[in-house]
Design brief:
Strand order of the largest sheet: 5-6-8-7-9-2-1-10
Structural class: alpha+beta
Largest sheet: 8 strands, antiparallel
CATH topology of the largest domain: Cyclophilin
Shape: globular
Oligomer: single chain
Order of helices and strands: HEEHEEEEEEEHEHEEEEEEE
Distance between the termini: 69 Å
Strand content: 25-35%
Number of strands: 17
CATH architecture of the largest domain: Beta Barrel
Number of domains: 2
CATH class of the largest domain: Mainly Beta
Radius of gyration: 21 Å
Number of helices: 4
Length: 287
Amino acid sequence: MNRKPFRLFLGLTMLLAASRAGAVPTTNGLYAVFNTSKGTFYCNLRYDLVPRTVANFVGLVEGSKTWLDYSKSALANRPFYTGLTFHRVVPGFVIQGGSPNGNGNDDPGYQFRNEINAALNHNSAGTLAMANAGGTNSNGSQFYVTLAPQPSLNGNYTVFGGVVEGMPVVSTIGTVATDANQKPLVPVVMNSVSILRIGTAAANFNIAAVSPALPVPHFKAAEVLRQPGHYALSWSFLANNDYRVCYTADTKSWQGAYLGPYSGVFVDNFVASSPSQFFVVVESKVD
């Protein structure tokens, strides 16, 4: 039997598979493995230069960092990024992911400060950095990967690694069709994100040992008070803390909002057409 056609087909299949994924890194270091619907790419994580930022990312990836699941009004310790999408793609600029609601306007229930290191910059394609809300203390879970050198971003966003294998996959994501809000028309999904440790130093990197410790969200006692003409959700305010609220009309479908350093908020702000609402307040330290 002539088996050459089968071997040719197998060879093409292997070639196509290889084109969709970078080779697994072998050099000592700490790596993030992004398995996406467009292929797999690998980023090194510079825990030696920006340990708090890497600790936050690793903790969210592995589920060892507590975060707020707005959709369930629950504190979670499970892998954060699995199943999320690259919700923003700007050709020639960046691909961005890490938003649970897929709209880029949420966070993991806390924020932490920039960790700028002059040795890390945006001077090449494949730079991995934290997205923020325009402030030095507004990092959370969202990150981006550059599609080209972006030196204008230097000093304003925390770079914590870069693509070492699979840049063609990143470039492919950077060419998908998007809507007017730069959101892919067909979702680009992170099937899984995992951490690869090679060598003793990477194996010994302990996210709980970074100093100062990263903020941790926790529930805050609150009550609804009747005031003239409206109701107010009130709690005991602590200085240097941020507040978020989860709310629902049926205890099944929850939404969330970032309030900032407030000591209370009108219930009316969250009531649309439902006659009643349920609320949970979450507190986290300002980093």
